[in-house]
Amino acid sequence: MTFDLTPEQEALATKARDAAAAIGDSVAHVIDSLGQIPEDVSKALKAQSLKHVFDRGVVNATIVIEEVAAISAGLAAHIGFDSALGASERRN
Known about the structure:
By secondary structure, the protein is mainly α. 72% of the residues lie in helices and 0% in strands. The N and C termini lie far apart (40 Å).
């Protein structure tokens, strides 16, 4: 089975990849080692407007989580759980 992304999904993947890369390897290592997300990283992700994609379907959510997980598994889990639980909505 071939799985091709739509142009919109490709753009989303690029945006998520760029946001994850901006975090940097050293910060990602700290996140994954300590299990804590620095406040500035959380704010930077919110500024990228990636969390809203979870309202637009599972494929979009998976794209974002996969791209972020390539940099930090802990951060990807945080984004996924936070969005699944609606925690970001309660804080805004």
